[in-house]
Design brief:
heterodimer; A: 112 residues; mainly beta; six-stranded mixed sheet; 0% helix; B: mainly beta; seven-stranded mixed sheet; 11 strands
Chain lengths: 112, 114
């Protein structure tokens, strides 16, 4: 079935370090891919998305590129801040079918 | 203005009780969802409604009964609560059911069953 696999956390970084959170998805259909972020005590917010192969989603300095050949959608940021500390969820959504399938989430901890 | 709101924010109750969680969206969206997030942060869809009609029911026990009085509201009623129901429940909405429409999430309801 459809699934999303994320790297296990927590990911612990110092401020201004480079961030990569890996995400891979099962290659069934032509899904749209998303990154959602959950700050402590809050709901999920859409961070970025990509709807077809080679698309790059970007927002707030975060980027992810839809790679069909490697079925990946890795999240990157060049210089993280303490305020980026949160749980990041990768998700897929099949075309024409609205159910979001989430990965297990990756907690990011950024220290000053 | 809060786009997707849920009440209550916290709910502590005894096993065997019946409780409801309410969700309202003021975005004019046609589709609403309930997701469950367990203690390990794993998120899974429970239900989806489109224009008050049930579209998705992901093998959720029939103790859980969603109710959509109008397309702006999707409430979740839970009968005979069990310890395993303890979780954070998120409501979400999106403009349409078909296509890649972004889902907007509420702040969550933290349910603890004792």
């Amino acid at each position: 079935g459809d699934s999303v696999t994320q790297m296990e956390g927590p990911v612990t970084l110092s401020e201004e370090a480079f961030l990569t959170i890996n995400c891979t998805y099962t290659a069934t259909g032509y899904p749209s891919l998303f990154w959602y972020v959950q700050y402590p005590g809050e709901g999920l917010q859409l961070l970025l998305k990509a709807t077809k192969a080679d698309d790059k989603g970007s927002n707030k300095g975060f980027e992810a590129t839809y790679r069909k050949e490697t079925t990946s959608f890795h999240l990157e940021k060049g210089s993280v801040q303490v305020s980026d500390s949160a749980v990041y969820f990768c998700a897929r959504q099949n075309t024409g079918f609205q159910k979001l399938v989430f990965g297990t989430g990756t907690r990011l901890l950024v220290s000053p | 203005d809060t786009a997707v709101s849920q009440t209550p924010k916290y709910l502590v109750t005894q096993m065997g009780n019946d409780k409801s969680i309410k969700c309202e969206q003021n975005l004019g969206h046609d589709t609403m969802y309930w997701y469950k997030q367990d203690s390990k942060k794993f998120l899974k869809i429970m239900f989806s409604y489109n224009n008050k009609e049930l579209i998705i029911n992901e093998t959720v026990p029939n103790r859980f009964s969603p109710k959509s009085p109008d397309k702006a509201h999707l409430n979740l009623h839970i009968n005979s609560l069990e310890l395993g129901d303890s979780a954070v429940y998120f409501c979400a909405s999106s403009p349409e059911f078909q296509g890649e429409e972004t889902q907007y999430f509420g702040p969550g309801t933290r349910l603890l069953v004792l």
